[in-house]
Amino acid sequence: MSLTNDTIKQKLTEKFGDQLTNWEEPYGMLTFTAPKDLNIKVLQFLYDEPQLRFQFLTDLQAVHYPGKTGEELAVVYHLHNLADNVRIRLKVFTDVNKPDVFTATSLYQSANFMERETYDFFGVNFIGHPNLVRILNVDEMDYFPMRKEFPLEDQTRIDKDDEMFGR
Amino acid sequence: MSHQDHILLPEGSIEKQTTTLNLGPTHPATHGVFQNVLELDGERILSAVSTVGYIHRAFEKLAERRPLFQITPITDRLNYCSSPINNMGWHLTCEKLLNVKTPKRVDYLRIIIMELARISDHLICNSIVGVDSGAYSGFLYLMQYRELIYEIYEEVCGSRLTTNIGRIGGFERNFTNTAFEKLEKFLHEYPKQLKEFENLFTRNRIFVDRTTGCGPISAERALNYGFTGPNLRAAGVDYDVRVHSPYSSYEDFDFTVPVGSTGDCYDRFLVRNEEMWQSLSIIEQAYQKVQEFKGKEAEVYHADAPAYYLPEKKDVYTKMEALIYHFKIIMGETEIPAGEVYNSVEGANGELGYYLISDGGRTPYRLHFRRPCFIYYQAYPELIKGGMVSDAVITMSSLNLIAGELDA
Questions:
Q1: B374 reaches A (C-beta below 8 A)
Q2: Residue (of A105, A74, A108, A73) closest to A89 by Cα position
Q3: Backbone phi and psi for residue B27, each to the nearest 5 degrees, phi listed first
Q4: What is the value of ipTM here, to two decimals?
Q5: pLDDT in tens, chain B (408 residues)
Q6: Amino acid B19: pLDDT
Q7: Interchain CB distance below 8 Å, A78 and B225
Q8: Residues of B in contact with A59 (CB under 8 A)
Q9: What is the number of CB-based contacts under 8 A between chain A and chain B?
Q10: Whole-prediction pTM value?
């Protein structure tokens, strides 16, 4: 029996009602947003529910949207049901000034390094993480380099016109 | 647990019973920049703390200022033992975002290159396991065949280690006859050598005793730790991206996915060896399919996607359209459609994923690499706990950790 996106959506709405929003299917992958207090409850439900069994955390990372006031940081989980071979994407938005999200390490050991990496680059504070320290950058770094306020090139340069040569 | 009970020392002469040892970051046995601070009781490992990030190069940040085609050389430097797979994975991700459909011949040519890369990766990994367990000769037997693979890359794209092979939509040029001749030479010579290598190792009593039960992991733990690729299959889970979500026409091929049971070094070794045989069979099938294309079809080496596929140089000089597209692509003026795509390929050491978010600009808004060995490396302390220091060394090499990929 194959698991369809509609079944997943139906199961989730039965359990969580309209708290889950922004249902999309870009390139066939079911994508939705959960409130940030609910992220572990949703992950746990997806893990335990016998029909869903999303027990493999493929990937976890963050995206910074400086324009979205109050929900600048998005933490994105890619989950995989290996038995039915279905992938879904769960997003959790959080305020950049108070970037607290519950950790998924209790469910997935693999989340340990991935959350550390996300903390390292975006400053997402994973509550309950066993060892939330920088992983790829030096420990002395006092900013979160992947945020959009740190442009890659010197923005004061005037000899380069992005309108003409966009890079 | 201590094996030093018989040593008689005056009471209080040793304050700390355990020893701290830095394994790495620049020890030759670690094959890359890996540091582990081991806590030892005698020679037995009590705990390990891994430090990563020594060669972090901020690829994800770099990618946010680069047009798509300039990101390909970045992907080379992830798993540099099998760069073509990374390149192809990136091209496939872009093609998924841009809705470019590649012709079958391109798919098959890509499969030839990707499987060659898998062989070159596995042969290094397996022969290094041999070196670390004290058998240097296997390494010398196989290493010369990586040279043959690199010569094929060289014939196709001009470079060897960091290949930057292919383009969005296909290859930069058609495979020459020399490339196919070199491929035939490899297909003819390599199986004999691989057989010889297997004869040296697979039933070798010393090697078997050395590697069985070394760094084992159960299937459940492996899944929980996010293992993918040969390491997961050695633990008994038959997950292979090539089969689960076929890309680049893998569904046209007949191959088996080898699976182990205990997830120890020996199983990982066997799974990789068998995968090399399977890869050889896939390459043979693909080569046969490529030869079946006749006439005009045999000349196809890229998709019809002029806005993203860099045109051939001679067209740039003679055709107006090609000149325009060339200029637009090189100057990074091509706008990427907005979208959000996750695409993964079966890299040589696991599921290599690309999560690309585009907001409609000229460069990705966000690009994340799912690097398989970054994710499974966190199981390393658990794998080596309770073992000997020398077990830690072969466990590390049999996990196929590549520093470039780990640190991105």
A1: yes
A2: A74
A3: -85, 135
A4: 0.91
A5: 445 555 555 666 555 678 888 887 877 767 778 888 998 888 889 889 988 888 899 999 999 888 899 999 999 999 999 999 999 999 999 999 999 999 999 999 999 999 999 999 999 999 999 998 888 888 998 899 999 999 999 999 999 999 999 899 999 889 999 999 999 999 999 999 999 999 999 999 999 999 998 889 999 999 999 999 999 999 999 999 999 999 999 999 999 999 999 999 999 999 999 999 999 999 999 999 999 999 888 889 999 888 889 888 899 999 999 999 999 888 888 888 999 999 999 999 999 999 999 998 888 999 999 999 999 999 999 999 988 988 888 999 999 988 889 888
A6: 84
A7: no
A8: 342, 353, 355, 368, 370
A9: 103
A10: 0.92
**Distance, CA of B402 to CA of B81 (rounded, Å):** 8
Q: Strand, helix or coil at A37?
A: helix
Nearest CB among B58, B225, B370 relative to A58 is that of B370
Q: Where are the domains of chain A?
A: 5-127
What was the pLDDT predicted at B2? 45
β-bridge partners, B39: B20, B47
For residue range A8-65, what is the model confidence (pLDDT) as tens digits? 999 899 988 888 888 999 888 999 999 989 989 999 999 998 888 899 999 999 999 9
Neighbours of B21 (CB within 10 A): 15
Best probe of the B interface among A152, A154, A161, by most B CBs < 10 A, is: A152
| Integer Cα distance of B327 and B316 in angstroms | 9
The nearest CA of chain B is from the CA of A92 a distance in Å of: 16
The one-character DSSP state at B335 is: P
Residue B224 contacts A where some CB pair is shorter than 8 Å:
yes
Chain A CB contacts of B366 under 8 Å are 63-64
* Residues in Cβ contact with B118 at an 8 Å cutoff, skipping those fewer than 6 apart: B82, B85, B275, B276, B279, B348
Residue A163: is its pLDDT beyond 70? Answer: no
Check B363 against A167: CB less than 8 A apart: yes
**Superfamily of domain covering A5-127:** NADH:ubiquinone oxidoreductase Nqo5 subunit (3.30.460.80)
**Do residues B130 and B136 make contact, with C-beta atoms less than 8 angstroms apart?**
yes
The answer to whether A110 contacts B378, with C-beta atoms less than 8 Å apart, is yes
> CB neighbours of B249 closer than 8 A, spacing ≥ 6?
B104, B107, B108, B111
**DSSP-assigned states of every residue in B101-163:** PPPHHHHHHHHHHHHHHHHHHHHHHHHHHHHHTT--HHHHHHHHHHHHHHHHHHHHHS-SSS-
Chain A residues whose CB is inside 8 A of the B97 CB are 27
Q: Which fold has domain B59-407?
A: Cytochrome-c3 Hydrogenase; chain B (1.10.645)
Q: Would the CB atoms of B355 and A121 count as touching at under 8 Å? A: no
Contact: A136, B339; criterion CB under 8 Å? no
Q: Tell me which chain B residues have a C-beta less than 8 angstroms from the C-beta of A137.
A: 53, 56
Confirm or reject contact between B221 and chain A (CB < 8 A).
Answer: yes
- Which B-chain residues 337-356 have CB contacts (< 8 A) with chain A? 339-342, 344, 351, 353, 355
Instruction: Find, among B53, B47, B132, the residue nearest to B381 by Cα.
Output: B47
Q: Which of B70, B74, B239, B378 should be substituted to probe chain A, the one whose Cβ sees the most A Cβ atoms within 10 Å? A: B378
